Structure formats: structure tokens, C-alpha cells
Amino acid sequence: MSKTKVKICGIRRLEDSAILNETLPDFAGFVFAKSPRRITFQEAEILRRHLDRRIQTVGVFVNEPVESILQLVNEQVIDLIQLHGDEDDQYLKELAQQTDAKIIKAVRVSSESNLNRSYAADYLLYDAYHGNKMGGTGKTFNWEMLRDKKEDYFLAGGLNPQNIKQAIQQLHPYAVDISSGVETDGYKDRNKIIQLLSNIQEVTA
């Protein structure tokens, strides 16, 4: 089985950068949307400077002006773009025409979700639907809904060290996206991240 990539989302402190430099996940997520983990563009620039260059950074946005996203890409603060709002295909195409950065479009999954809809994005990220919250809720969804998905995608929604093995063995996603599942009292927990990566290694080595 090919190794599932790992994204740790909601990096906001220099201590978080240090933990990631030690553990080396594939992606680090900077949240620029309304969230307890929200950071400013300036804070992201500082965190990027302190992150190992082997870790790709992902900017997480909700209905952000295209120009603001392009600024962060052009200044090499973020490597990938993750969209968690109501961005339509016109928005996605406009963005893609102006950057080579890969675009991830989040799809919030509920029991009534149409998972066959296509988007003008490089990857889809499947997250749990929870009211008007745009991720980071700690809630899972019915993974069986993704069983027939053949394309590469990111799996999010309530993942943690305890359920990560089952998620990967059941779905074999391209990448997993974890935020609150590796936190204690709202902050990234080094031991939980180490345990998560160890558990992933056990099922993808």
C-alpha cells in the first residue's frame, strides 16, 4: 500500500512549527478563515520561515478574494490552496488560471450529500458536515459513502490517533487531514502527533 500523506492543520504557534519539524508530516495547514485556529498573513509568514522546507504549507480559506490567496502563494507563504467555503467553478477556474499551486476543494459530507459532483480542483477534501462550521469540528461521517471513490482525495473529519488506522485501512485515501484530533486543550499536542504518525506508519509501511 502506498504511504498515505499526512496534513496537520491549524498551525498557529512557533511551538507547533517545532513539533512539525521534528515529526515531518507532509503538509502543514494555516487557517485564514474564521476559526479558533485563525492566524494572520503576517503570522503565517513567520511560521513558514520556521518550518522545515520539506513540509508543504496549505492555506485554508473561506470565500477569500482571489487576490489575497495569490499574494500568499507568490510570496511563498503557502504551497497549496484549500477552499472551504461556497467557491463555485467560476471562482476555481479564475484562481487556477493565475497560479500553478494545487487547489483542494472541501466537500462537507452529510447523509444527503451528492458525492458525484465534479469540481474544477486538483483534489477534493471530504469533511464532516456540521451546521455552518467549516472544519475542525472533531466530528466524523459515514466513511462507507467514500468506499467507491477511485481518485486521490484528502480525508478529514474527526480523525485522531485512535481511529486513523481504521480510516486508512478502510478507504486508502491519498491524504488524511487532522486538526482537533491531535490537540489538547485547543493546542497541538506533540505526543498525539507522534502517536498518530506511528499508527499511520504501521498500516502503510
Automatic annotation (TrEMBL):
Catalysed reaction equations from the record: N-(5-phospho-beta-D-ribosyl)anthranilate = 1-(2-carboxyphenylamino)-1-deoxy-D-ribulose 5-phosphate
Molecular function via GO: isomerase activity
EC number: 5.3.1.24
Pathway this chain belongs to: Amino-acid biosynthesis; L-tryptophan biosynthesis; L-tryptophan from chorismate: step 3/5
Gene3D superfamilies, A to Z: Aldolase class I
Annotated PANTHER family: N-(5'-PHOSPHORIBOSYL)ANTHRANILATE ISOMERASE
Name of the protein this chain belongs to: N-(5'-phosphoribosyl)anthranilate isomerase
Organism: Carnobacterium antarcticum
Organismal lineage: Bacteria, Bacillati, Bacillota, Bacilli, Lactobacillales
Gene this protein is translated from: trpF
